[in-house]
Amino acid sequence: MDRAQSVPEDGEGVTGHPESRWPLVAAELGLLALATGSLMTFTRLFEGTTFFWTIAPAVIAAWLTALSLRRLGVAAGVSTLASLALGALALVWYFVPTTTFYGLPTRQSVDAIGELLAVSFGGFADQVAPVPASDGFLITVAALLWLFVTFADASAIRFHATVQAVLPYVALVVASGVLARATGRLEAALAFTGGLAVYVVTQRIWHASRSGWRPGDARAGVRATTATAVGIAAVALLLSVIVAPLLPGDEQAVVDIRSLGRGAGPRTVVSPYVGVTSLLGERSDELMFTVRADTPAYWRLTALEQYDTERGIWTSRGTYRSTDGALGETVDGATSLEQEVELAGLGGLWLPAAFEAEAVDSGIPVGFDEASSSLIARDDANVSGTSYRVRSSLRTSIGPQPSSDDSTRPEPVPGSAEVSPAVSDVAREVAGGIADPFERAIRLQDYLRGPGAVYDTAVDYRSEPDPVAAFLATRRGFCQQFASTFALMARAVGLASRVGVGFTPGDPVAESPGRFAVRGRHAHAWPEVDIPGVGWVAFEPTPGRGDPSAVAYTGVAPGQAAPPEEEAAPTSTAPTTVAESAPVTTEPSFDASAGSVPEVPERVGTDVGPPAWMVPVIALVVVAAAAIIARRWRRRRRRQRILRDPGLGPVAVAWNTATDALRTIGFVARPDETPMEFAGRMRTEPGASELSDLARDLTALARIETTRRYCSRPVSDDDLELAGQLARHIGAAAHEQLDRRSRLLERVR
């Protein structure tokens, strides 16, 4: 092939008319459908679908980046490196924006992402899908999909390797599927097969459009090929519906990673509050479970007694024994409460019940930890849809406490060193001189929820040197902050304390008296104090919340998150539990027997830095600017090289200028064509009558180019001047054929 002849660039059509562009656009959209379908299969691994809206922007940004770099003519190697660099930058901007320096990643960015990964994967071997979509997992999935999107675009469009482009997605779907349980198999299979079907059909359309059809046969050929591909895709979708329920996996994952490299032994389970908080926000109105009971109460999951000062979270250790139904002893002076619980969207292993549980009747194996009075489903039983009965001793009042004239300051209890002097000093000032333990707890409760306390989900104290002291200085926050601070202050004044997690009573079901619908917005945390001679007693320091069964001794009126329609009313002033998914200082985790599960920190600095939608926009602007500069520089260098070559010269420049202009309207020279054959083909193209002037100029220029290439005599001076004029006429005529958008794009290119 002659050195000066233009060749099709990667990803451009070669059929010779503008209609060939839409199959390429379809093939590109098919790649996006494939990536999106692969992403949807993660519904089997993650709780809920909120993860999709976090990762989908990254998938779209990766797709747009690869598409833009290719269409702007950036070479494959450079395009891949640029796309991966922009992907890394996008992840930093989205997940840890406050660690950047004027938008550029720093060492702190690397450390922050490493911490998120360590937190998520620290307990990976002990978790059972579906799990909360923590940031560490989201970063990993987003990074993998960015890489796969980049690879698939290069493989399918640049190098026409249709099958190879799909292989990474297949591997990802298989790897995620073997770790999941039977739940969601059909939905995941349909999502992936649907995306794959769209990809296959659009690839077939594009490849068919690029075939060397005889004049008049192209449209019919493409239609026939498309019909065949659609039929194959429909059969594949039907097979996925039939085969998906037959895939391995029942109540267990195909591969249980907890059993790899270890025998039977202690298990670590994820904090119940982590699972609950993942359902807040958009899914705050989703039903978690229903309870039928004569009296509303706090439906407790467990209690956390260990405070991690480094991470500012609460953890717990417990030993769960099998039970045949009998649990703890009946509490003296307590009211017996029968509950019928039916689980819905709660998920996990936890079985909610009023504190303290006495007996349980369940159709699945149950484990009970006496120290925390917590119930879990044993042997990885699937709790979704489970119904069970539980009887609890409900403490509705506290008997008279022994009087004491001892006004000495109570000694701190073990664990009080977890709180800073700034916090312990306030605790002693509020309740340190009171001998009665119950009265001490009441004083702390009334102080935290008293005048000046504000329920606010928007605050974030994590950047403070002492987050607990910062919260205490304002008493502005929500349930976890109030409960955690109460427990720490209680320890400073000699009270053994811990943090309970669970749900407020829920909404009464109008058509079923005595039944309560507990939703995501009812998730809650509260402190518990071990009162000598009484036992563990729940208190309520959080404004706007109150246990209806504890009004007699706490003096706090019942309260919980209102339904959405009531929250929106102008007369409603109580904040809602929905936003309890906001950043918090203390976040509970739970260790069922040995070792602790690293908790999932909230996204670092999500309130600072560019918003999520700016990531693909900024990336595209940077890519477009760099590609335009590189393309123009490459064109200039090519023309200069042609002019310096004594065997080429101005006629070769004119020919390349003309063929570049014709490329913009979809008329591309084939490698095996001579200049005259190329010009002759324009006369046979559909709509040739409208291009007669353009075809005439191209034929004249082709004769001069043929002389330059194949004749021994040199091109005359008149023909040299004419070649330049013809190239300019062809460029202007081709420009007139473009629509407004294409003209603008051609100008910047």
How would you describe this structure in keywords?
749 residues, 21 helices, 4 domains, disordered N terminus, alpha+beta
Give a written overview of the molecule.
With 749 residues, the chain is α+β, with helices and mostly antiparallel strands. It folds into 4 domains: 231 residues, no CATH class; 123 residues, no CATH class; 158 residues, C8orf32 fold, CATH 3.10.620; 104 residues. The protein is built from 21 helices and 17 strands. The chain has a 6-stranded antiparallel beta sheet, with no helix packed on it. A 4-stranded antiparallel beta sheet has the order 2-13-16-17. A hairpin with a 3-residue loop joins strand 16 and strand 17. The radius of gyration is 34 Å and the shape is elongated. The two termini are 26 Å apart. The N terminus is likely disordered.
Low-confidence stretches: 1-19, 213-218, 246-265, 273-277, 404-408, 567-613
Total strands:
17
Global morphology = elongated
Structurally, the number of domains stands at: 4
Strand order of the largest sheet: 7-10-6-1-15-14
Number of continuous helical runs: 21
- As a whole number of angstroms, the C-alpha radius of gyration is 34 Å
Q: How does the helix and strand content classify structurally?
A: alpha+beta
- Major sheet details: 6 strands, antiparallel
Multimeric state of these chains?
single chain
Summarize the structure.
With 749 residues, this protein is an alpha+beta fold. It has helices spanning 21-40, 50-71, 76-95, 107-122, 135-158, 162-178, 185-209, 218-243, 272-277, 421-431, 437-449, 467-474, 479-492, 551-554, 564-567, 614-644, 650-663, 675-684, 692-710, 717-737, 740-748, and strands at residues 287-293, 299-304, 306-308, 313-315, 321-322, 335-343, 357-362, 366-369, 374-377, 387-394, 454-455, 476-477, 497-503, 507-508, 515-519, 523-531, 535-538. The chain is elongated, with a radius of gyration of 34 Å.
